[in-house]
Task: structure prediction
Amino acid sequence: MQFLSRARPAFELGLDLCVFAFLPLLTLFSRATAPLVGVAGLCAFGLAVPGGLATWRRLWKPAALFAALLAWGLLSTLWAVAPARSVVTAWRLLGLFAAGLSLVAAVPSVTAPMRLATCLCAGLVLGLGLTLVQYATLGALTQPFFDRPFYEPQLNQVENGFVLLVLPLTALLALQRRLVVAAAFAGALAAMIYLLVGEAARAAFLVGVGSAILVYVQRRWVVRLAAALTALIVILAPILFPLLIRLGDAQRWANAVKPLSLWHRLEIWSFVGARIAERPLLGWGLDSSRAIPGGDALTPQGVPWLPLHPHNVALQIWLELGVPGVALFVVLVGGLWLALGRVPWPRLYAAAAGGSLAAAFTVALGSYGLWQEWWIGSEFLALFLILVMGRLALSK
Result:
């Protein structure tokens, strides 16, 4: 314990470096975000441990939820269509959840939150520059390291990273009366979000801004409504999302928004809805999406009905973990909204954090796999940063 206490400055410096590297890594090698979060989690653990049991006791609820989710996922190997994959995924999630909880636990132990925020800003500037170079040169910075050609959606990961952080960072700078810097960051990030090709990120940014305005006007009731709405969307997902393909002119509308890609997403959701109906209670097993029967059959467009995962967090939790998994997920996300209603942040910062939470949920409903390590890691790092910036916002 004495060694950890003496090493705390080194652990905090390690966290600063991880924060600085976060967005540049998302730009260049997004999969490296998962090991980055592992390193950040170890640094955070070393920073938080000297605080004793009190540091960890306040995290017992999310820890219990994560433990229950992992336990149910492991139990699902008994009927999973890909049991070996379920076990491997559970172990990976154990590491990610431990790192995420360590990051949250370390928030009060950060002795130089302004330095950490400065590292975020420096990394953000570097990330913006690297993203612009990658976009303009068709991936010249990373193409020598890959066999496959660069294509613009490879920048969607950092685009979503920008979406998660733009509102809280802008709000903090505004509270610090750095209005010119706040406007510059907000303008640059918004321009980059709309320059890149990620439709989910653009939609999430708009949802985030709208949600932030609502939370600013009436935080107490809006967070409760958001918690209820989130739960309703997740619970009704097997009905709502598969129905979209049956709406009039759905294919014409989908192709007008994003040719081929969005229509294929609707086909995936229709297929997944039918598979959920076959096993609604227990699901098909943790991370079994790749092995769902019929998933590799081809649609009329000649693409698989279910490539890798459903591209929808609500459908994936239903498909793989059934009713128990859905219940745990609803409690987790709803708990985040309700916690936002209790935290004593300034009105502007709380609204920005609410916008970030709404944006994250929007991205999750239309993009990545539920268990993708880099995305879970990005969410944990973003949460850590929002909580640390919240400490700075309280001091203003």
The chain has one domain: 2-238+307-394. The two ends are 34 Å apart (CA to CA). DSSP finds 16 helices and no strands in the chain. The mean pLDDT is 91.
